[in-house]
Amino acid sequence: MDQHKNRTLRLWRKLKDGDVEAMGDLYDIYADELFAYGMQFSADKGLVMDAIHDLFLNLYKYRKTIAETDNVTYYLFRCLKNNILKKATKGLSLVAYSQNHELNHDEPSVEEHICAKEFENERAYKLAKAITRLSKKQRKALSLRFTEEHSYEDIAAIMDVSVQTSRTIIYRAIKTLRKQLYLFMTFFF
């Protein structure tokens, strides 16, 4: 067995034992490869990135029940493909529902529009509030990555950190934001 495979298997076992750092290390090792692989199934970069982040969040969330594997790469790639296809299928069913809704000529009521707008405003407020709770370093890294669209290598150079550290900062910031928004969504509904 080669050194890379040994390392990823050790990290996999640590992840299953609840080691968050191991999950971050696996993310750092595989994020770029997973992104390139995911783009084969969807041209939507945002959908692919969401699927990757969901994959790692779910790995940690369900760590006690995930299977043992002797090929971490294959496991991650297969899970990512399934996540992307689920997200794409969900999007298609929403489009089909929307088209069907239009065919029935059912227009949302004024109240439904107002409620939807209030919900969007509240979600935007909660996101902005959650962003302010991030560290200055996390906010800067997110801005560099998603607003200015810098690569992880560029972010590492700008922030004077390693590439792995730049990925970890962004991963943890996104994880925090998702958790905050998840709490908001479960409370709101």
UniProtKB/TrEMBL annotation:
- BP terms from Gene Ontology: DNA-templated transcription initiation
The GO terms describing molecular function are:
DNA binding; sigma factor activity
Report whether Oxidoreductase shows up as a keyword of the record. Answer: no
> Matching InterPro entries, A to Z?
RNA_pol_sigma-70-like, RNA_pol_sigma-70_dom, RNA_pol_sigma70_r4_t2, RNA_pol_sigma_r2, RNA_pol_sigma_r3/r4-like, WH-like_DNA-bd_sf
Pfam families registered for this protein in UniProt: Sigma70_r4_2 (PF08281)
Q: Using the record's annotation, list all stretches that form the RNA polymerase sigma factor 70 region 4 type domain.
A: 127-177
Going by the UniProt record, its keywords in alphabetical order are:
Sigma factor, Transcription, Transcription regulation
Q: Enumerate the NCBIfam families for this protein.
A: sigma70-ECF
Membership in a protein family: Belongs to the sigma-70 factor family. ECF subfamily.
Name of the featured protein: RNA polymerase sigma factor (Sigma-70 family)
This protein's species is Gelidibacter algens
